[in-house]
Amino acid sequence: MWIGVISDTDGGLHPKILEIFSTMDFIIHCGAIGAPEVLLDLSNCSPISGVLGPNDHAEEFQPLGLELCKTFLEVPLFVRHDLGTPSKPTKDLPRILETVAPKVLLFGKTREVFNGTVDDRLWFNPGSGSPSSNGRACSIGILEIEGQSVRGEIIPLPNTLS
What we know:
The protein has 162 residues and is mainly beta. The protein contains 3 helices and 12 strands.
């Protein structure tokens, strides 16, 4: 199973994303969506779910909430826009790990990519899926789930919009 992971689109999408995500089985948005059209465009590629970021208004993005627990092929995932970082997680992470017991933690906010295993859990931040006028790198992620195994890959996108 292939899952496209995106975050911090802030109302826009790099044009290559729709092409890449058209081959995914599912898409997860890790928050800071910015505009309902982003989800609409992504939903034309594959089924999609996700979470809200701090500036996403719930009434525009129903039924999304602040947290998402989803299981794919018996692999539990937990999604929230802000989980901190593995070296400095949010204070409520122990509660999440105890109650949800996720194998994968998906997050955004920092706009910095992260793809690493800490304490037998994959921490995965795809970076920012939106082109930036300040030259910030644009990227998305892909999760491959096979049996109980999960592998993450970050896909950098060209800074040009063509």
